[in-house]
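Propose amino acids for all 547 sites.
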């Protein structure tokens, strides 16, 4: 049946080459950028440690126990082509192209080539996927390998199921959710037997192969993950990352009200975030419309058993990612949002005669969301707002290096690492840093009491603050964010300068983000010709762990 659902298919190598060329062209303006946020705080230092020492456990940053597959891939590229942001970002674009090829094959298997092409294009243009495609982070790689695992699962190739999902969990530990959810699904199918109500689970031969082989293949990926955690424990003395990382991402999130709020956020990220609502909303409305007929037959849908496979994986990620994870980041759902896109595109094709123009409109809306920031707080890594952040910090830190080369700089993470680690790409030499956790009133007042320890301050927006917040009148939401999601309001630069006893000597803003340099009143501008001592960091308070 499935063969009749497919139209002629281009060769996978040709599809991969076309995808890589297209996304490389789109990312050319950002390939040279220094590393951003969690890249600078964890992933790049970890990959660099692997490159320089061969150690799978980082030593220039605290280990978070993330498996090393992606970091080893980036280190390999640095080894072959040199240490540079362009090299690392090109390596990640290859991962992105391979992930999109996996999604294309999966959508083609589930539906047909037309749906596969449209869904792959929409996913590549979806702002979160697009922004993550060139960043040195691990979620996109885990998503792509999950797509390949799902494709093998539908094909009944269980050796490949075990292989792809094993690679996925070695890219990121949370990728175990895919095979674990499907293993639970297999158990549920076995317990349900062959009653009338569950026939939809079995029709069409959509998920083929012996039941035990399917279940065993889905259990195997737990073994390499367990081996990695065993190795990590033997080297560090803890299993799931350092204690602060575990508290922030697991122990500190187990609250019923927080879970409910996070679940609502996860559902929004899965179905509506960054203009995704245009696609899912159209899908919901078209469910009220009869399928389009080509000749005497209605256009086919994705087989119900395949849809169940998608839905069980989506549900597992939405629920578990609402339960754990200190920061409710959209990138954590990259393994499942493309599945939503595949189902939605298939529905549009089935129920809308002129569905291709609708897909063009959705793609245009996604591209708009690259540049347009929503009227609520979001992570800058979800669109090209991360570029604005990087450019702001480049400008401010270049000014600091030129004007205050031996000054002690008060700032917060990740700027503290950007200033003290030239290999992150922001400065040419290390600067002395005094670090605070953020720029909330409490932290700035605390820093003012110790102003003798620093000469200048670099303050910046640690989160995106829209000029006209959608929920600005709902004070309760701000309180809940502060209680459950670590939200702290950054002081304006002028207020920080007044509290610290200084004046602003540099200031720049870009689309809701800002940065400023504050010179303390008693600080004299230091001669740039003075020799530069070794940089150091004095941490007034430990900053939040990398995610």
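Proposal:
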């Amino acid at each position: 049946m499935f063969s009749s659902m497919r139209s002629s298919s281009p060769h996978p190598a040709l599809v991969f080459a076309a995808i890589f060329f297209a996304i490389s062209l789109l990312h050319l303006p950002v390939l040279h950028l220094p590393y951003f946020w969690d890249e600078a705080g964890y992933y790049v230092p970890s990959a660099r440690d692997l490159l320089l020492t061969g150690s799978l456990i980082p030593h220039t940053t605290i280990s978070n126990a993330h498996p090393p597959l992606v970091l080893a891939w980036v280190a390999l590229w640095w080894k072959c082509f040199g240490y540079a942001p362009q090299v690392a970002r090109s390596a990640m674009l290859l991962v992105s192209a391979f992930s999109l090829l996996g999604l294309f094959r999966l959508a083609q298997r589930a539906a047909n080539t037309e749906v596969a092409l449209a869904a792959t294009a929409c996913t590549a243009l979806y702002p979160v996927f697009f922004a993550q495609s060139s960043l040195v982070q691990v979620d996109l790689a885990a998503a792509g390998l999950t797509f390949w695992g799902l494709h093998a699962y539908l094909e009944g190739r269980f050796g490949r199921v075990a292989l792809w999902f094993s690679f996925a969990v070695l890219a990121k530990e949370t990728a175990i959710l895919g095979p674990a959810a499907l293993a639970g699904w297999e158990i549920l199918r076995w317990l349900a037997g062959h009653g009338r109500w569950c026939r939809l689970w079995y029709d069409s031969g959509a998920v083929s192969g012996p039941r035990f082989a399917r279940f065993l293949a889905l259990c195997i990926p737990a073994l390499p993950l367990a081996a990695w955690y065993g190795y990590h424990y033997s080297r560090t003395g803890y299993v799931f990352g350092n204690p602060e990382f575990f508290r922030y991402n697991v122990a500190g999130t187990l609250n019923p009200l927080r879970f409910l709020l996070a679940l609502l956020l996860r559902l929004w990220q899965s179905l509506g975030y960054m203009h995704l609502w245009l696609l899912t909303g159209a899908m919901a409305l078209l469910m009220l419309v009869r399928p389009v007929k080509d000749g005497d037959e209605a256009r086919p849908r994705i087989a119900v058993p395949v849809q169940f496979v998608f839905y069980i994986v989506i549900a597992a990620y939405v629920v578990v990612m609402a339960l754990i994870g200190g920061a409710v980041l959209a990138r954590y759902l990259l393994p499942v949002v493309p599945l939503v896109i595949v189902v939605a595109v298939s529905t549009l094709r089935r129920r809308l005669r002129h569905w291709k123009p609708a897909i063009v409109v959705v793609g245009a809306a996604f591209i708009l969301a690259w540049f347009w920031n929503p009227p609520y707080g979001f992570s800058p890594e979800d669109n090209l707002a991360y570029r604005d952040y990087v450019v702001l910090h480049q400008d401010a830190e270049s000014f600091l290096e030129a004007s205050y080369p031996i000054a002690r700089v008060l700032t917060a993470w990740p700027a503290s690492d950007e200033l003290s680690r030239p290999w992150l790409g922001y400065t040419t030499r290390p600067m002395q840093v005094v670090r605070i956790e953020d720029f909330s009133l409490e932290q700035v007042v605390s820093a003012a009491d110790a102003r003798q320890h620093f000469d200048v301050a670099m303050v910046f927006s640690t989160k995106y603050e829209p000029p006209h917040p959608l929920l600005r009148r709902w004070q309760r939401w701000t309180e809940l964010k502060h209680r459950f999601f670590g939200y702290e309001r950054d002081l304006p630069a002028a207020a920080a300068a007044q509290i610290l006893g200084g004046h602003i000597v540099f200031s720049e803003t870009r689309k809701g983000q800002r940065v400023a340099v504050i010179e303390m009143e008693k600080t004299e501008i230091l001669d740039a010709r003075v020799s530069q001592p070794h940089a150091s960091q004095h941490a007034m308070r430990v900053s939040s762990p990398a995610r």
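The longest strand covers residues 502-510. The CA atoms of residues 268 and 277 lie 9 Å apart.
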